[in-house]
Structure formats: structure tokens, C-alpha cells
Amino acid sequence: MEVKWLLDFLSLVDTRNFSRSADDRATTQPAFSRRIKALEEWLGAPMFDRSKQPIELTEAGRRFKPVADEVLRRLFQSREEIQRIGQRTESTITFAATHSLSLVFFPNWIRGVEKELGQLRTRLDSKQIRNCVQSLVRGECNFALLPTHTSVEVELSEEEFISLPVGLDRLVPVSAPDETGAPRHALPGTQKAPLDYLSYFGSAVSGRAVEVLLREKGNEIHLRRVFETHLAGVLKSMAVEGRGVAWLPQSEVVTELEAGSLVYAGDNSWNIASEIRLFRSRDPLPNTAEAFWKYLDDAASASS
After folding, report:
1. CA 7 – CA 294 distance, rounded (Å)
2. Do 140 and 174 sit in the same domain of this protein?
3. How far apart are CA 293 and CA 162, in angstroms?
4. CA distance 247 to 210
5. Both 35 and 128 in a single domain?
6. 14 lies in which domain range?
7. Sign of the dihedral defined by the CA atoms of residues 31, 33, 36, 40, in that order
8. What is the pTM of this model?
9. What gap in Å lies between CA 48 and CA 63, rounded to an integer?
10. Which of 3, 134, 180, 258 has the highest local Cβ count within 10 Å?
11. Cα gap 243→227, rounded to integer Å
12. Residues 125 and 215 in one domain
């Protein structure tokens, strides 16, 4: 079955003349006749009574006409809808970002970009870092917004992907305060009284960066891992409740530090520098996404 057979059929219904329909369909009469015959063979019954002039629909043809009308109507309607979706997709800039960056950094960052570029159509999928990377590799998003640390390698080949720095942050150890305002869980702890440690779980890049720091500290630090999750927001809630010490993005605990519900659990030697980077494939992106990237690239070059 071909769509053009349905268009041929409906043209012949209107003209009731093979020669005129062939002209309307911009083909020769023999070619047009062969396509009508092919349709009839596919359906298994003649659609037209050729013994009459002008030709008439057979009973099978009369039954089939509303079906052909409906099929073509739905096809063309669907095509128009898909085209509109395609146009929206072309103009939508899609991001995958870690949960932590999705909650705090992304809204403020995109708002700043829009002050220069005007309002953008964007879509954000919040995921674990491994899933963000997979989304970018599979082409499910234009950009991946990820925290990076010098001690942890992002699993994206430089031959296939490039990135730009778009922000700075740091992981800081925090704890609920005691009655004097001092950290209830103050680093580094002791061998007799290790600190309760609220840690990241699985592939979280922040968790891997913290583990590198802890290995470097060696016997200097004494922790007892009591809780694990891949969500920084959950770690923050547990820390506020006084359940232990956690390393959290400073940008995510500004409010709690100002309110005093969290305090720093150690000095600056326990902090971990973090650079927020925007990753993309080296393959061409839709025009809107390319224009967005060019603005960021130009801005980064101007500030360097």
C-alpha cells in the first residue's frame, strides 16, 4: 500500500475519468491505470466499474471511499502535528543536569543567560551524573551540566565531546551546630570517637571527590559511615537533623549557613574545589542550541 494509491483513488472518484485524473496527478494514463490496478489487487476487489462511462464505483469502492478519506486525513493531520513538534524541538535547548545543579545552580545560571539572549525555550532532565552522561552520549539532550573536580575524571571522550566552564563551587563539610554554635560533628574526629559520616552513594562525582580527599587525609581523619544516598538534598536534610557530617555544594547550603542550621565542620583544608562545566557533542547541534553555545563560548573567551 502506498499513499499515492489513495490519492489516485480519490482523484478518480472525483473525475470518474482515467485521463483527467492522470493529468491531475502529473503522470501518464498507463502509469496511473497501473497504480489503480495495484490498489485493487492489494485490496482484493475492483474499486471501479470500467464498463460504464463515466466510470462508477463498485460496491467495494463505495465501502472503501470513507476509509481512504479517513486514512489520508489522519496521515496529513499527523504530519502537521509532527512538523510542529519538530519546529518546537528545533527551538528547544535540552539539558541533562545532576540533581544538585538542577535545584540551585541551573535556575540562576539560565536566568543570567536570558538577560543577554532573551527568553529561551529550555527543557531540563534531572538525573544522576552517570545518567546525564548517558543521555548526552545517546543524543537525548543537547547539553549536560556537570560538576567536575580535578581528582575525578568525567567519562566523556575529548575526541567526541567538548565543554565550557560556566560556574565555580566547592564541596564543604557541614554539620548541625551544638548548643554553643560549634559543629556537633567537628573534623577530623578521633579514633575513640569517630564522626558519623553522611556519604554519597554509587557513581556520584561529588562522592568520588570526597573519597579522594579522605584517602589523602589518611589516618588524620576518623569517620564512621552511617548513611549513604546519591542525592545531595537528602544529605543536607540529614545533616540539618544532626545525623552527621556531610560534604555539600556550598551553593546549596548558603541559606542554611546564614540561618545557622548548618555550620562548617572544618577549616578550608577540608574544602574541595568544584568547576561546573557544560558538555556537548562535537557533532553539529540544532541551530538554536548552536547559537546558545556560541554565546557561551564567546563569553568564556572574553573573560579569559
Report:
1. 46
2. no
3. 11
4. 7
5. no
6. 3-88
7. negative
8. 0.66
9. 12
10. 134
11. 9
12. no
